């Protein structure tokens, strides 16, 4: 029994004081004196944010689907789409569930082949959705949603999926009721051998050595049109040895193929674009959610005052110029960084 | 063009008289292949004499033998030869749409032995990677313990450490191949696989130090310090067995892309549990059911049920040389080489077939053969120039035999994404080109 256990009858204040000044290792010190120190209650609280499926760790609070819609449009829709149905940046969150599924707790669509899978089709624990949104959303500013916003966004997603009504207010008190309505709450099984090292395999082969039963017939191979889908395989193999890579992308006539081409070093501006999450939604050449940087440059590079216009757009956000999906505001970015980013974009984003 | 149909000799010895009619497709392929040598003459590739009196690379003094070379420490941290630039981690185009939540595959087609060089270790991040200041990194152990404790890197690195060689494989490795062939090379079909010597303190040491609840503790949660705050549950039995809280990787510190300065090593278990930038361990009595246990890393079965808490990587193997997308140089002798591994222990045996699984021969296992580590196998093969289908089949110490894709599909269907440990088939065409196929 450790000394901390023997202290457990001491008054709470004394115990806390003992914990706080225990960095010399006076408490619960095992075999390794001087290594580590007790965590303070505030430290434990700061990091112990996980919510388990029995709702251990779920903070008290609530949020309405209506409020969730506001948060969604401002912070989530640019990647996930207005109705959480977008498949542009991430797989869709909402869709594929029915009233019948809510009744059964099994999403019937999952048994059909060729059906895509949305988050709500897979979701078997409501705590998971709450915990994940709270812990790591939005994509470029994780841990920035309040408890209320997290309840609200979770409620809004559930409302979009018609699991709760549009005026629903989700709270720690009714999470269990929502759990009982999740369309795929009964959709998992642990009857398999892949949890423990000693688990029983579900698929069995035998080590036949001679004249084994096989047709040795090719059932599947890459179609010819996909030959260059992974670039030139010749440039992905060593230049000596028993093999070479097959040439899957023809070099232009007369042009000597390079031995190996390293990617050019990223410019400081590109690194800044990456750091600020710009490249999550904008490709250099192509549209991802928003337009590609080169498309932006092509449209604006000769227009008067375009630098100021683009800088304002990055700062304040906007919508409608390139399509319906809004560009979120970036109030946290420094003006000088924004200006240098705009110059980089208009200069061809190299 | 009759000779074009003749098998063998992909890189003809330049001194040999050109066979009549040798031209067209294969010849131009050769020219391309040779051009890839970066100006190296055909003679250099073949190593055969191109003149009557011998090879000019031998007969003539070469610049590097007749001048002064580079000084020591020209590179404070050494780099691979410039001739090795083709071997890079690469993304599979179209697989993911945001590079911060993506995969870079290790180039298994060019690796030797069982250790993955740190710069080629596969990458998988859920919300981007960071290069953390190790002096500001903290690990907290809390939950069902007598005392929650905080450790700095200084603290952890003073503790008794172990160094163990283990493989790490993403649960979704080979996941693109469940329903048909989808990728051309072993880099993309099997490259979410690496193997390093990891150095760190056993998790059991820390759990003991904090006084974990021996009666009630059933599970341990591990959490990362990055924006995804990635969390995974492991069982207390595993946590006390061979799990390592690691800072070392092949003799140096972890690379930032692999969790510098601290990651969890969970031998035999899929990579997602090897939490990077590890900041917190919580002891508990129930599964947490985190996002990576409820929405991802669940295996969809044909009846629409998802298998939850699948994590062990069952025995698997793959031939890396020759493998998809490669060209054999010529007819004749080859050392067919590959990797085998099992999350349940040691590899006992690997068999190789060159006729699509009809007949098998047992390969040589190169040492060391370690539990939950990659094992290198080799076998002699003389290619006679006729079409062949190469396969390898691993058997681990439990007696489990790596299954065929048809056997896996019969039980699990084609949509489970995770845990595809099928026998891989590489077709060798008469032209010497090797391609990814599935046979039935």
Describe the SSE topology.
The complex is a heterodimer of chains A (350) and B (440).
Chain A: H1 3-6, H2 12-20, E1 37-38, H3 41-47, E2 62-64, H4 65-80, H5 99-104, H6 119-122, H7 126-136, H8 147-160, E3 169-171, H9 175-179, E4 188-189, E5 218-221, E6 243-245, H10 268-275, H11 278-281, H12 293-300, H13 306-316, H14 335-346
Antiparallel strand pairs in A: 2-3
Chain B: H1 25-35, H2 42-46, H3 56-59, E1 103-104, E2 123-124, E3 138-143, E4 149-152, H4 153-158, E5 162-169, H5 186-190, E6 193-202, H6 203-210, E7 219-224, E8 231-235, H7 236-241, E9 244-249, E10 252-253, E11 263-265, E12 278-284, H8 291-294, E13 299-300, E14 306-307, E15 316-321, E16 326-328, E17 332-341, E18 347-353, E19 361-362, E20 364-365, E21 375-383, E22 388-396, H9 405-412, E23 425-428, E24 434-439
Parallel strand pairs in B: 3-12
Antiparallel strand pairs in B: 1-2, 3-4, 5-6, 6-9, 7-8, 7-12, 9-10, 9-11, 13-14, 15-17, 17-21, 18-19, 18-22, 20-21, 22-23, 23-24
Characteristic terms for this protein:
heterodimer; A: about 350 residues; mainly alpha; Cytochrome Bc1 Complex, Chain D, domain 2; two-stranded antiparallel ribbon; 14 helices; 6 strands; globular; B: about 450 residues; alpha+beta; Sulfite Oxidase, Chain A, domain 2; 2 domains; 5-stranded mixed beta sheet; 5-stranded antiparallel beta sheet; 9 helices; 24 strands; disordered N terminus
Explain this structure:
The complex is a heterodimer of chains A (350) and B (440). Chain A has 350 residues and is mainly alpha-helical. Among the domains of chain A are: 3-47, no CATH class; 62-179, Orthogonal Bundle (Cytochrome Bc1 Complex, Chain D, domain 2), CATH 1.10.760; 268-346, Cytochrome Bc1 Complex, Chain D, domain 2. Chain A contains 14 helices and six strands. In chain A, helix 4 (65-80) crosses helix 8, helix 10 packs across helix 14 (335-346) and helix 13 (306-316) crosses helix 14 (335-346). Chain A is globular and about 75 Å long. Chain B has 440 residues and is of the alpha+beta class. Chain B folds into two domains: 2-50, no CATH class; 89-440, Sulfite Oxidase, Chain A, domain 2 (Alpha-Beta Complex), CATH 3.90.420. Chain B has helices at residues 25-35, 42-46, 56-59, 153-158, 186-190, 203-210, 236-241, 291-294, 405-412, and strands at 103-104, 123-124, 138-143, 149-152, 162-169, 193-202, 219-224, 231-235, 244-249, 252-253, 263-265, 278-284, 299-300, 306-307, 316-321, 326-328, 332-341, 347-353, 361-362, 364-365, 375-383, 388-396, 425-428, 434-439. In chain B, the strands form six sheets. Chain B has a five-stranded mixed sheet. The longest helix of chain B has 11 residues, at 25-35. Chain B is globular. The two termini of chain B are 33 Å apart. Strand 5 of chain A pairs antiparallel with strand 24 (434-439) of chain B, so a sheet runs across the interface.
